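Dear colleagues,

I hope this message finds you well. In preparation for our joint manuscript, I am sending the ATP-grasp domain-containing protein (Actinopolyspora alba) sequence together with its predicted structure, so that both groups work from identical material. I would be grateful if you could confirm receipt.
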Amino acid sequence: MTTDPHRAGGRPRVLLATYSDMPESHEDERSLSAALDELGIDSRWAVWDSPAESFETADLVVLRSTWDYTSRMKEFVDWCESVPTLANPARVVRWNSDKRYLAELAEAGVPVTPTRVVEPGDRARGDNNPELPDREFVVKPTVGAGSWGAARFLPEQRERALLHLRSLHDEGIPALVQPYQPVVDREGETALVFFGGVYSHGFVKGPLLDPADDATGSAGLGKGPFATDPAPELRRVAEDVLDATGELLGVARYEFLYARVDLVRGEDGEPMLLELELIEPRLNFLLADRAAPLRFASAVRAELARRAA
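The corresponding structure tokens are as follows:
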């Protein structure tokens, strides 16, 4: 039975899900337990696939640093569906785990970085392959975290790009092809963090992919991140992304306990969605104001109250 967080002496129990390589959380989120305790919520970190944990008895299980899930997708999603009090919910996890959601959001009218999905079995057509833009572009798997499997190519590197595309397809992995947005090299990506559908803080991430003339096209060191106060137009687009996602999934915006919306400006200066993180995003509390963990804790408390009602 779910504990009422407002009854006398009742302290709800929250598990913050992580993975075995980081059983005590990432340093960026060590302030969360204290923030939750201030609001009368007991919490601890728990490895998501540990047979010793009783996730089904927790008042709320919050996905945080479950950073090994992309290599164990079916097992992870099955586990998510077994946890009745998961946040964000399992159906949100299933939808957000495959970057083909970008095409759905684009169809819903959200400004999204131009994205083409190339499924295994699609016929490669050499230099005239319409899936490969005539400008610098990126090829990346539809399922993957960070920059895993992503590579950046120049137009004259189409053969190399096709080899990379085929290597993904040989593993049965669909791929996304997107024109590279050069503004990322100058300004980075802006990440906007929301708790319970309400904006909390923002930060800028530098480019994660090496320049396309790097022979490997592999993930680079990047720059940053650093705190930022996002411009109003970025805030508006981020809010639109959450509203559109809620409509697609049939959930109210406040039901997203946490969300990170990664935006980039196009060549015309207008914001576009690069990625929406609803599973286990880095929230960079260390870059935010001191009240950010408390805002997270307040959103957890509101979610507990909603589920207890």
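For the figure legend, we might mention the following. The CA atoms of residues 158 and 212 lie 11 Å apart. Residues 1-8, 124-128, 213-222 have pLDDT under 50 and may be disordered.

With kind regards,
E.M.
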